[in-house]
Amino acid sequence: MAKVVVIGAGMMGTACSSHLIRTGHQVNLWGTELDGDIIDLLRQRGIHKTLHVSVPPGIKFFQADELEKAMDKRKIVIMAVASYAIGKIAKKVVPFLKEGVFIINVAKGIPPSPYLTLCDLIESLIPSSLSKKVRVIGMGGPARASELVRKISTEVIFGAKDERTAEYCSRITRSPKFKTSATSDVTGVELCAAMKNAYAIFIGMCHGLSEKLKISMDNTKAALMGQAILEMSRIIIPYGGKLETVMGQAGVGDLYVTIQGGRNGSFGKLLGQGMDVKEAMEKMKDQTVEGYIATRGMYRLAKDLEEKSIISIKDDLPLFNELYSVLYGGKSPAKAIEDYFNKV
Predict the structure, then answer these.
(1) Is 264 annotated as a binding residue?
(2) Which of the four, 1, 63, 82, 266, has the lowest number of CB atoms within 10 Å?
(3) Is residue 145 part of an annotated ligand binding site?
(4) 247 is in an annotated binding site
(5) CA–CA distance from 251 to each of 158, 184, 310 (Å)?
């Protein structure tokens, strides 16, 4: 049994808390300033207002001004806030870290330059006195919060520079409904987690367009998924990631579930149905579309590789090139899909 604190009371943070309390751990769930109403309802009725489900008994809930109390004697810290807030929230957490703590990042995004992954960003904020005594781990794979909280079977992978650290996290979180594995490829795990969100938007656009036109486009969506995995590998491998990570749960597995019903796929679907980016964002204003943010980060990483003559964005990442044109250049999804297939 480990003493755990989950940082962020959104859907994923609450789902992780529910899983871990069922696995036999002591769990504190801390809410950010944005989670006040969520924590209030959890305290009063044990129900999460977005997941619409009762959480298992035993979780202790903490408001934003109770971070020190929530962090007390915790060995495992789960970072479950939106990727854009990781730096800000990690700075609040760091003063309460102790030697021997494990920080598991379940957020999925690409941080600002000069950092490659969110784990890199978190590590940069840890004081030098603790830098070798606090371990940072990434988690990837298909773990939709609405299913995780309801004990529906899945499999995830933990990545850490020291594979023994990842194996420890894998071992203590595993259950009959939550299969786990470990790797030293934390770069691959983290980048897959971010990039699949971006590509899920494009494939979601195809889904929305098929509904708008009232035609089946399953072949098209499958072809786009295959290309997405290929392009992810073309970015991830030059940065030190492994092909097997992209081809496993962190890449293929997570991309599939995100396409099927995640918020990024839903955002893409709205675009495909005819909304522009601003309208779709307004429609989903209560949800964080991580893939929209990740697309900018991916462009930075891809551009760095292009400047080193490792890849050509236009030739090697044609699907990503079209996605970027839609999200940041105003191109229509229908035209982007047409141009992609004409290019290939």
Answers:
(1) yes
(2) 1
(3) yes
(4) no
(5) 13, 15, 21
